[in-house]
Amino acid sequence: MARRPSGTGGGRGPGRMGGPKAAGPGGYCICPNCGEKVPHKAGQPCYKVSCPKCGSKMTRELSEHMGRFRSCVLVCLAICLLNSALGGCAPSSPRGTDKLHVVVSIAPLADFVAQVGGDRVTVTTLIPPGASPHTYEPTPAQVKEVAQARLLVLNGVGLEFWADKVVQSASNPNLIVVDTSQGIDILEGDEHEPTGNPHIWLNPRNAIVQVEHIRDALIQADPPHQTEYEARAAAYIAQLEALDTELAARVSGWSQKQFIAFHPAWIYFAQRYGLKQVAVIERTPGREPSPAELAEIINTARQIGARAIFAEPQFSAKAAQTIAEETGAQVLFLNPLGEEKEFVSYLDMMRYNIEQMEQALK
Question: What does the pLDDT look like over 125-134, one tens digit per residue?
Answer without folding.
Answer: 999 877 888 8
